[in-house]
Specification:
The chain has one domain (about 35-355): 3-Layer(aba) Sandwich (Rossmann fold). Helices cover about 40% and strands about 20% of the residues. It contains 12 helices and 9 strands. The chain has helices at about 1-25, 45-60, 65-70, 155-160, 185-200, 215-230, 245, 260-265, 265-270, 295-310, 330-340, 345-355, and strands at about 80-85, 90-100, 100-110, 120-125, 165-170, 205-215, 230-240, 280-285, 315-320. Strands 1-2-3-5-4-6-7-8-9 form a 9-stranded mixed β-sheet, sandwiched between helices. The longest helix has 22 residues, at about 1-25. It binds zinc ion (ZN). Zinc ion binds near residues 127, 175 and 254.
Length: about 350
C-alpha cells in the first residue's frame, strides 16, 4: 500500500512538478528578505562586533553617517527665551542649532543646589506632544490648562527635575521633514542626539550619567537614542516594545524607513543598548492590537539574549504594570535612581521598612 502511494506521488510529481516549479516566484519577484541581521546568541566579542555592524548599517539607512562627524563643528548659539525659578529647580526654554541651518527649542531644568555635577535625563513625548508634554503644569506657568493627552506622561520630567536631575526635552512628534535629503526618523533622532550634546556641554551635568526616557513614539525614540548614542547610560522605553509585524497594522507608519525591516526587528534595535541598563514598560491594559504584553514578553526574551552574552542579564527588565498606554512613574523613577543615582534611596527605604 505504502509503495503504491509513493509510485502515485512520483507520477503526480512527474506531471505537475514542473508546473509547480514554474509557478514559484522568480528571484527578483521574491519578497525581500527580512531581518537579515537578527541577533542570535554568540560570544561577548562577537556580540560587540555585531552591534558595531548593525549600528553602522542603521546609520547608513538613516543617511546619518556623514552628519555625525560634522556635528562637533555646529555651535549651539544658544538663545535663552525664558527662565523661571521653581524652588528646587530652574526651568528655561532655549533655542539652539540642531543642524547648521535649523534651530530647535528645548526645555531645560537645572536643580537649584549646585553641589556637584548630577545625572541628566532626556525626556521624550509621543504623538501629539510638544516639548512641555513630559512635565507637570506646575513646571511652567502661563501655558493654560494641561492638554488632556499629556496626562499619560504623569509629569515624569517634573518629578525628575524636583528630585535632583537635569532634564531636557524637545519636540519629536512632527510628521514633516524639515531639510532636504533627510528622513523623518533621522531628524527626530538627530534632534535628540543634539540634546545629549547640549547636556554634555553643561557644567551641571555628569557626562557619564545621562539617561533617556519616553512613552509611545517617545518610547520608540528612547529606543533609538539609547541604541545609536552610546553616551546614553540608562534607557526607559515605555509603551513601545512590540514587533514590526504588529506595527504594520493599526499604527501610524512613521516608524518605518527604507531598508529597516530587511535588516532588523525592534528587538535587534533594543539589543544595541546592551549591556547598558534598559527598562521597557508595557501596561496590562494595552489591547491585543496595541503594545500587547504577550508580544512584549516575546520581544524581551530576544533582547535578554545579548544581555546574557555580555554578562549583564540584570541590566534589562520588562516592567509590566497594571495600567494601559501610560508611563509607570514609580517604575521609571526607581530605574533611573538605581542606575544613574547609585540606588540612592535603597538604604533609606530599608531602614524605614525595618524600623520597629
Ligand atoms: Zn506617526
Amino acid at each position: 500500500m505504502y509503495t503504491h502511494r509513493r509510485i502515485i506521488m512520483a507520477i503526480v510529481f512527474a506531471f505537475f512538478g514542473n508546473s509547480v516549479l514554474l509557478a514559484a516566484p522568480k528571484q527578483d519577484q521574491a519578497i525581500p528578505q527580512q531581518r537579515s541581521m537578527r541577533y542570535i546568541s554568540r560570544s561577548a566579542d562577537d556580540a560587540k562586533a555585531w552591534q558595531e555592524d548593525v549600528r553602522a548599517r542603521l546609520f547608513l539607512l538613516l543617511k546619518m553617517d556623514n552628519s555625525l562627524q560634522r556635528r562637533n563643528s555646529i555651535p549651539f548659539s544658544a538663545n535663552e527665551l525664558s527662565r523661571a525659578d521653581r524652588g528646587t529647580y530652574h526651568i528655561m526654554e532655549v533655542e539652539i542649532n540642531s543642524t547648521s541651518s535649523r534651530r530647535i527649542r528645548v526645555v531645560v531644568t537645572i536643580p537649584s543646589s549646585k553641589a556637584k555635577p548630577v545625572p541628566a535625563v532626556v525626556c521624550i513625548g509621543g504623538h501629539g506632544s510638544d516639548l512641555y508634554s513630559p512635565y507637570d503644569p506646575k513646571t511652567f506657568s502661563g501655558e493654560g490648562p494641561r492638554k488632556k493627552s499629556d496626562s499619560i506622561y504623569k509629569g515624569f520630567g517634573t518629578v525628575l527635575a524636583e528630585t535632583g536631575y537635569v532634564t531636557i526635552s524637545t519636540t519629536v512628534s512632527q510628521h514633516k521633514v524639515y531639510e532636504k535629503g533627510r528622513l523623518l526618523m533621522t531628524e527626530r533622532l538627530w534632534d535628540l542626539i543634539r540634546c545629549v550634546d547640549y547636556l554634555q556641554s553643561m557644567s551641571e551635568v555628569d557626562k557619564r550619567r545621562i539617561g533617556c526616557g519616553g512613552l509611545s513614539l517617545g518610547g520608540e525614540m528612547a529606543m533609538w537614542l539609547g541604541a545609536m548614542d552610546e553616551r546614553i547610560a540608562a534607557t526607559v522605553s515605555a509603551g513601545f516594545l512590540t514587533t514590526m509585524d504588529q506595527m504594520e497594522q493599526n499604527h501610524c507608519m512613521c516608524w518605518k524607513f527604507e531598508g529597516l525591516r530587511e535588516h532588523v526587528d525592534f528587538a535587534d534595535v533594543y539589543s544595541l543598548i546592551a549591556p547598558r541598563p534598559l527598562q521597557c514598560q508595557n501596561g496590562m491594559l494595552e489591547p491585543a492590537s496595541q503594545f500587547y504584553v504577550p508580544l512584549a514578553r516575546r520581544a524581551m526574551d530576544e533582547i535578554k539574549t545579548i544581555y546574557k552574552d555580555l554578562d549583564r542579564p540584570e541590566n534589562v527588565i520588562l516592567d509590566v504594570h497594571g495600567e494601559g498606554h501610560v508611563i509607570d512613574l514609580p517604575g521609571l523613577v526607581y530605574f533611573f535612581d538605581k542606575h544613574l543615582y547609585e540606588n540612592r534611596w535603597k538604604q533609606e527605604i530599608y531602614d524605614m521598612r525595618t524600623k520597629r
